[in-house]
Each structure stands twice: as C-alpha cells, then as structure tokens.
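Please decode residue identities from the backbone states below.
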C-alpha cells in the first residue's frame, strides 16, 4: 500500500469506517441507514474532502460466486475523488430488501449523482429515496422490467418494429428463441503467470 493510501486507510479507521484494501484500492462498506451520513462525512471532513463523485452504479449479486448467496441481492457503489488529497475511494452500500431495493439519494451531497441514480434505477430497479426526478433515462417509457438484472432475459420480452400497414411503431412478443451466449476467450500461453 502506498504511503498516501495508508494515511487514508488509517484516517478512515479513526473515523469509524473499516476500509478494505485490494489491488491498491480502498473500499468502505456502509449500512443503508448510514449511507448519506457517511457521504457527508467523506465530503466535509477536512482531512478527507472527497469533493467529487466520479461514478455511481448498481450491482446485482444474484449469481455472484459459486456458493449460495450470502449478500443481499442489490448494491450501490460510488467512486469518490479527493482532488486536494489526490486519493480515490470506493463506497458500497448493500440494499436491505431484495424485493424493493432502496437507498437514500446522494443528489444533495453531490449533484452529479442525479444522472447516475436515474441510470441505476432504470437498469437495476434500485430506488433512491429523495431523488427529485427518478424516472427512466435509457429505456423506453413503456419498458417493462430492468435490463441489467441477472434474471432479465438477454433478448428481452418484447420487440418493436414499424408496421407499414398500421403506419406506426408496434410492440410484439420477441420472435427469436432465447439462447445462452458464452463468449470464447482466447489467451496466449502462460497468460497469468507472474502477475500479482
């Protein structure tokens, strides 16, 4: 761990956050009820000053790992940057309810979270409590479901096309058979040897 990262690690521990280090990056996991207060602390603490939200995304752990799932199904991950201290931090919050994934909105902490939260809502169905304009951003208004969920079929449920007889766009059930696509990965011999 670099000296700068070690300093951040020690400071986060002192503030009651338990960071984990992997691949020279720090991650803090917080409970849903502490998500917004932790974000405010990370932004406002003079020795932290994570003034910039770089990214926010949703995660679906439905098929994560080889064993039965121990984590809640959905999570939200944010990536933060402290320009003044030149460090980055990842914060993960696990949604408490798999049926209705919900966390607080961070738009009041970092306004840039607005678009990212709308994307996570649209693609994963994660609801951000307190978001002023939580609506779909990438899929069609009448779209049913959330396409990045692991249980959503690759081909979707409906397809749309222009019907020249009706002179309008129509929706109909998907006409292709569902199939599983497994990519073929080709790597050179001894690809991962000697890499840490």
């Amino acid at each position: 761990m670099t000296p700068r990262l070690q300093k951040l690690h020690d400071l986060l521990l002192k503030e009651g956050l338990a960071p984990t280090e992997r691949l020279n990056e720090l991650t803090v996991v917080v409970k849903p009820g502490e998500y917004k207060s932790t974000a405010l602390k990370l932004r406002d603490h003079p020795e932290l000053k994570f003034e910039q939200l770089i990214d926010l995304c949703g995660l679906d752990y439905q098929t994560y790992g080889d064993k039965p799932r121990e984590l809640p199904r959905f999570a939200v991950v944010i990536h933060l940057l402290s320009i003044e201290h030149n460090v980055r931090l990842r914060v993960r919050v696990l949604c408490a309810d798999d049926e209705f994934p919900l966390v607080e909105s961070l738009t009041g902490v970092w306004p840039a979270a607005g678009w990212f939260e709308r994307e996570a809502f649209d693609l994963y169905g994660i609801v951000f409590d307190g978001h002023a304009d939580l609506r779909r951003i990438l899929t069609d208004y009448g779209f049913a479901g959330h396409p990045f969920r692991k249980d959503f079929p690759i081909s979707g449920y409906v397809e749309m096309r222009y019907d020249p007889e009706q002179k309008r766009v129509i929706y109909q059930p998907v006409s292709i058979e569902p199939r599983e696509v497994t990519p073929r990965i080709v790597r050179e011999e001894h690809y991962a040897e000697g890499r840490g």
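Observation: The first strand starts at residue 20 and ends at 22.
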